[in-house]
Amino acid sequence: xxxxxxxxxxxxxxxxxxxxxxxxxxxxxxxxxxxxxxxxxxxxxxxxxxxxxxxxxxxxxxxxxxxxxxxxxxxxxxxxxxxxxxxxxxxxxxxxxxxxxxxxxxxxxxxxxxxxxxxxxxxxxxxxxxxxxxxxxxxxxxxxxxxxxxxxxxxxxxxxxxxxxxxxxxxxxxxxxxxxxxxxxxxxxxxxxxxxxxxxxxxxxxxxxxxxxxxxxxxxxxxxxxxxxxxxxxxxxxxxxxxxxxxxxxxxxxxxxxxxxxxxxxxxxxxxxxxxxxxxxxxxxxxxxxxxxxxxxxxxxxxxxxxxxxxxxxxxxxxxxxxxxxxxxxxxxxxxxxxxxxxxxxxxxxxxxxxxx
Length: 357
Ligand code: XIL
Prior knowledge:
Shape: globular
EC number: 3.2.1.8
CATH architecture: Alpha-Beta Barrel
CATH superfamily: Glycosidases
Domain GH10: 29-353
Bound molecules: (3S,4R)-3-hydroxy-2-oxopiperidin-4-yl beta-D-xylopyranoside
Radius of gyration: 21 Å
Signal peptide: 1-24
Protein name: Beta-xylanase
CATH class: Alpha Beta
GO biological process, one term: xylan catabolic process
Number of helices: 15
Order of helices and strands: HHHEHHEHHEHHEHHEHEEHEHEH
């Protein structure tokens, strides 16, 4: 078949759709990656394997970040659903994408209270210790050459109470499960930066101040026992209308970590307007403030190792997890681009913060 006949055999609508997609959609690069590279700053985003296979979405990551975090694919629930049976297909897709595009990969996460049922059903210390050890060794070891930072323990404290969270690891091993997890990860990859990741530490309230105090105490104990902790992760999921950054409290916290030789990492930066009623959507300026300020405070007061946003575009993004408020101002979490792939002012805030470094 010659070329003309071949083209004629393709339905017109298909040709137009293909051309339209190629031409239309990738928004012009916001230049965040070039800026971050110039400043030697690790700037990343969470990504899903579906985005890797989407030519428009994937280009937006390539243009804007030099680091990616597989959103769900490295969680225990994804990698070891059955005892000792590991699967890495979706994680490998993301890691391969990073390698092809010269990006770093941030691993999320090893020990978290949300585990497969078989893990939470364990009821003796030796079995849970062995399960942790096997899990951490397999996962960290497999990606030794490609993942250079890990959230080792995720959310060790309760969300709105400054106490250690009840979970199978703590129930059977005591508070020491945190130190054990870090030691196991360090053994599997001595070069990786190991992070303790927690919620709300950047926000204003008495309870969150008490969470900062609690985390500092945990880190102090780890450092005293020469446990290799590289940074504390500040998740930074903002709920405009509900949370405010606490520049003073957060700044003091970052500085105290720095004094102990421990860094900070902004690990999951995004905003939810689920708690906001329609008509009270924050002005574009306030997204610039939220996204920019948290990075600026961490950089000015702490030893900031990098920042990651928890998604790139609301067009491909997930619905807000607890979307039970029928009057909510929006249903997607706010990232860098809106539902039409138009840039949000969060980009301006992040630029301002990285420029100032
Ligand atoms: C969330 C993901 O974004 C969702 O896709 C998934 O269904 C649940 O987990 N803190 C964390 C992340 O450490 O792992 C969570 O990610 C968001 C809150």
